[in-house]
Amino acid sequence: MSIESILQEVFGYPSFRGPQHDIIRHVVAGGDALVLMPTGGGKSLCYQIPAIARQRAGQGITVVVSPLIALMHDQVGALHEAGVSAAFLNSTLNSEEAYQTEQRLLRGEITLLYAAPERVTTARFLAQLDALHERGQLSLFAIDEAHCVSQWGHDFRPEYRALTVLHERYAGVPRMALTATADALTRADIVERLQLEAAGQFVSSFDRPNIRYTIVEKKDASTQLLRFIEREHAGEAGVVYCQSRKRVEEIADMLAQAGIHALPYHAGLDFKVRQANQNEFLRGEGVVMVATIAFGMGIDKPDVRFVAHLDMPKNIEGYYQETGRAGRDGMAADAWMCYGLQDVVNQRRMIDESPAEEDFKQVMRGKLDALLGLAEATDCRRVRLLRYFGEESTDCHNCDNCLQPPDVWDATDAARKLLSTVYRLHQTSGVSFGAGHTMDIVRGKLTDKVTQRGHQSVSTFGLGADYTEAQLRAVMRQLIAIGALHVHNNEGFSTLHLTADSRPVLRGEVPVRLRQSSSQRPDKRSRNRTALAPAAASLGQDAMVRFINLKSWRAEVAKAHNLPAYVIFHDATLAAIAERSPQSLADLQHISGLGTRKLEAYGEAVLAVIMGESHTVSAE
Ligand code: ADP
Ligand code: ZN
Asked: Of all atoms in ligand 1, which is nearest to the CA of residue 41?
């Protein structure tokens, strides 16, 4: 059976996307592969189709290594729905269940087996693989989330390092490593650590054109977030990322009080609560998950309409991975971040205070700088993001800066006044001060602290009286971002210090250009969703009624099967059915997302819903 017919019959898709075809051909033929594809690009098919093809050719099972234990149940459920024999082995199974699965594995009844890396490398599991290997029944290893092998990635998991055993023990068995994010350094590390020097490298474009990037200046973050959700995403599913557990709780409460169906998720919550909240997010409609970065890897919910960052991530990889969880279904989605001076200070401090080696810290600082550059940018955000991943592009017309080019002001003078105040303060008093006090002096404010210390006599006092505090704050942020000011943290006090890069700015040799604070400008951006409207937006009235009926039918099926609704059918598939209004099984042919098995299992029921007949759902 050809890989084209597997795509059509098993998954119900008419054609391959991007480089899927090349990758699948390469792996089916026994090649190793490194696959870099953005989130939502369609990585799963890249190993699922080879697994099916090779199994049908008598080559045995595929082992999928994944760190995402909590999601294996749904992933395997989705394959079952498509009629593919799959199973998982992880710590959620009791010993009897695990034993049964192992037996099925040894009997060759499984096409894809999902397992966590720590399980794969146990002596017990390797012995089972040995047995399969001896019989020529070990077909392929797919190592998902492969960036976990690298400490340069954003989610290093030491267990991944032990996976070299697969190569050493089963040299002839093809391996593929897949990840949605890797800069050049991480990529090289994956190749080295997983010994993929001879593998084919398949790097897709990292662009996610349906995601709109927006970065706003932080003022009152919770209010800004609430307004963003209410104005642009009322009733829609989204993820809000916060730095700390405490903040997750606060923001989830705040949103819930405002009437939004918001739930918290962080590693400090009881496992059961976490699991329940994740299930609610996956299975419910329009749930907003407020979370630390502990949440999200492998979440393949296709209709997440926004990802919001209330605090700045550590680097662009993290930002891109997290924002990538929006809009996997290809429809319009938002990546929204609000960011302020404190974020810069906090992230720098976290690096400074970490116990890591200095050269490691240097790499981390470089990565943080790249993200700061993105946040401060006045040109196309997407061009910068893609360039970071080694891809050149042109203005995207779907980011805040493209849609509404920011007004820029020349902040060189303000920057010089701030820096020279830092310099003079240190000179006159021998100690350093923080951002607030420094700005007060520049603006000529006679605060208690100023008068007590006699700082009104500093020669720069009041020289920047024309600047607002918000403006000076922005200048300060930019100076820290470009490394012309250093924030030193000592027992809870942050003080400002000049650096080697301060001098050219002080001399006026480096111009400082800043975006005009966004609050000073009217919001001109319009929501133009017609091009990428959500699945059902273009349906007429009758079709809309059918779509709604199909959705409620789907909800019952999903519940009976204990799976998220999108595993049964995507919205887009239901919308296509509603549009076509099929009168017979033949009319259901060739609807995207409707493979042979689903047609058999659900065809009649779907027709009944379309004809307005009552329906019952069995739990089979
Ligand atoms: P990734 O793992 O790369 O984030 P997935 O494998 O979850 O992406 O795929 C994202 C979505 O795209 C899924 O809903 C999947 O069913 C769909 N998809 C993948 N390949 C195709 C294709 N060739 N045609 C249509 N839809 C596809
Ligand atoms: Zn742009």
From this structure: 3
- Report the predicted TM-score, pTM, of the whole model to 2 decimal places: 0.79
Per-residue pLDDT of 115-131, as tens digits, reads: 999 999 999 999 999 99
Tokens for 170, please give them.
Answer: 């089963």
What b-and-e string marks burial along 348-382, b requiring 16 or more CB atoms within 10 Å of the CB? beebeeeeeeeeeeebbeebbebbbebbbbeebbb
- Rounded-to-integer distance, Cα 482 and Cα 497, Å: 14
Dihedral of CA 8/13/19/24: which sign?
Answer: negative
Considering the four listed CATH numbers 3.30.1640.10, 3.40.50.1380, 1.10.150.80, 2.60.40.10, the one that applies to the domain covering 541-610 is 1.10.150.80
What gap in Å lies between CA 590 and CA 575, rounded to an integer? 14
Q: Provide the residue type at 256 as one letter.
A: A
If one residue of 5, 44, 49, 66 were mutated to test the ligand 1 pocket, choosing by the most ligand atoms within 8 A of its CB, it would be 44
Place of tokens 């800043």: 514
List Cβ neighbours of 35 (8 Å cut-off, separation of 6 or more). Answer: 23, 43, 46, 176, 177, 178, 179, 202
H or E element that contains 93: none
* Cα distances (Å, whole numbers) of residue 501 to 353, 415, 416: 22, 13, 12
DSSP helix/strand/coil, 594 = coil
What pLDDT is attached to residue 518?
Answer: 55
Residue 333 has pLDDT above 60, yes or no: yes
CATH number of 211-338: 3.40.50.300
* Pairwise CA distance, residues 481 & 149, whole Å: 30
Q: What ligand 1 atom has the least distance to the C-alpha of 300? A: 7
Closest ligand, as measured to the CA of 215: 2
Q: What is the pLDDT of residues 356-365, one digit of tens each?
A: 888 888 888 8
Distance of CA 492 to the CA centre of its chain: 32
Q: Which CATH architecture has domain 409-517?
A: Orthogonal Bundle (1.10)
In contact, 395 and 402? CB cutoff 8 Å: yes
